[in-house]
Amino acid sequence: MAEVTFRPLRPWALPPDKPRIDRAAARAERDAYRESFRYLRVPRLPADCPPWVLGQELGWSVRSPLTLTMKPLADIGFAVPEGEDPHRAGRRLGGAGMWQRGQEWIAARDADWLHLGDHRGATGGWEGMFVPNGQGTLEWRLGWAATLPAGTFLMVMPLPDHAPDALRVPVGVIPAKAVNAMAERGGMSIAVRPEQPVTVHRGQEIARIVLLHPDSLRTTARTDPPEAGPQPDPAEPGGAAPGYPEAGR
């Protein structure tokens, strides 16, 4: 059986945990209605539906390590011509905050809240928890590392339901080699996009991660044509006699 290992890299980190449906509590509520109320019932209990339970308990829960209000990012991506001061170029383009991503830069207005996640790193200096990714998304560094079996993949996905309002989590698939290497670069991170001011709380579930077998990405599908059904007998009522049009035409 495949095994995934999670370990915290920072004292504030909340490593993923397995979501569980409390079926006993759901059935107790259903029975209480039946025994105590004249009309009120729970006619169909989701906890008794195996597909729903499997969907709710799929993978591991990713939880917010802190409480704060996120705001949408009005960002732009730009290049700095050789010999030009990056910060002067950023101010000219209307960006208050600037982040270098590879050879290019991202400038964003109203991004002061990103610094609320600044934390003390392994070497004692300050590190950012949130880094703009462009197009309104940001990288959320979570302070924990994951070790996956070689050859597998990790899918980051939104919650099955009850996701924080206005916080979008793009679906992404990361190879095990990349996930395991993140342990040396500060740990796991996911992409999120706040679409309006949204408050998340420490311990609140924000995303789900699922281990994928390589066959999940290599599998192909085909659609077979429908099987031919039985043909009408011309001798039966409604059947077409040879050489004559069918009834009703």
Structural write-up:
The chain is α+β, with helices and mostly antiparallel strands. It contains 5 helices and 17 strands. The chain has helices spanning 23-36, 50-56, 86-92, 176-181, 215-218; strands at 5-8, 60-63, 68-70, 74-78, 97-101, 104-109, 119-120, 126-127, 130-134, 137-141, 144-147, 153-157, 167-168, 172-175, 189-194, 198-200, 205-212. The protein has a 4-stranded antiparallel sheet. Strands 9-10-15-13 form a 4-stranded antiparallel sheet, with no helix packed on it. A hairpin with a 2-residue loop joins strand 5 and strand 6 (104-109). The longest helix is centred in the first third of the chain and has 14 residues, at 23-36. The radius of gyration is 27 Å and the shape is extended. Mean pLDDT is 88; it is low at 241-249.
Tags for this model:
17 strands, 4-stranded antiparallel sheet, alpha+beta, 249 residues, 15% helix
